Amino acid sequence: MNIGLQDSFRTRFIAVESDALVIETIQTESKTRRQHLRILRFKGTWHANQQNELCFEVASRKGPPQTYTFKGTWKINNNQQIKYTLAGGHNTLLFKGHWQITSQNRLTYLLEGSSTSRFEFKVQLESPTLFPKKGQIRYRLGTGIRRSRLAKGAPIVTLYGEWKFGRNLGLIFEMDYGQGRVRAMEFGAKVTFERNNLIFTLKNELGQPLGITLTMTHKFLKSFDAEAFIRLTSRQQEQGAEAGITLPF
Fold this sequence. Notes:
The protein is mainly beta and 249 residues long. The protein has helices at residues 218-224, 226-239, and strands at residues 8-17, 20-28, 35-48, 54-58, 66-70, 74-76, 82-85, 92-95, 97-103, 106-111, 118-125, 129-130, 136-141, 156-160, 162-165, 171-176, 182-193, 197-203, 209-217, 245-247. The chain has two domains: 7-27 and 35-123, no CATH class; 161-249, no CATH class. It is built from two helices and 20 strands. The strands form four sheets. Strands 12, 15, 16, 17, 18, 19 and 20 form a seven-stranded mixed beta sheet that branches. Strands 1-2-3-4-5 form a five-stranded antiparallel beta sheet, with no helix packed on it. Strands 9-10-11-13-14 form a five-stranded antiparallel beta sheet, with no helix packed on it. It is elongated.
């Protein structure tokens, strides 16, 4: 298709896939006003830049890769998936995937069906101390990792789910993504026993702290998971009243 100097040429993003971006192009001929519609599918990789913006890097065999940066604000929809609204607010792009917390001050969104595309966002916990009854983890987006650098009014990402214990007593945060899709984030933990509380300091699979503590009262844990309470207190007694215990990932 040849494009004349006076022809108008319009493009818009119409869909996203785990490793692709779909673009619609419309060419309007200046003389006849005839329109030519094309749908283009570019293969590449999704990632987040230093400003927590969504980016797509087009795979290229020749020359440097081309990167599309989506400057607008993205949000999480009711199914806890990322939704990006295009300029004008008429079209939206939905990114299907699930969340993971793999390191301190980083929140990762893994795109469904891809081994390479993911968004790794710089974040700060709203509060490092969580309570399981609330069933949520709240992060504030920012371009730095120090709270003092985060802009006032920065967007907040809230993950909703249910805390559970795994077979090895590791902690699980189970999230519902709608349409029967349930995924779980798993954590190891160091457990400290206080007079009325159990403090779980969460760790990733490498044993590194995530900056998150989960506090459960003895009364709550007995009603929440009586079997887990018995197993935890038994381990504590085996290892000594003053010692904390470690739960594997």
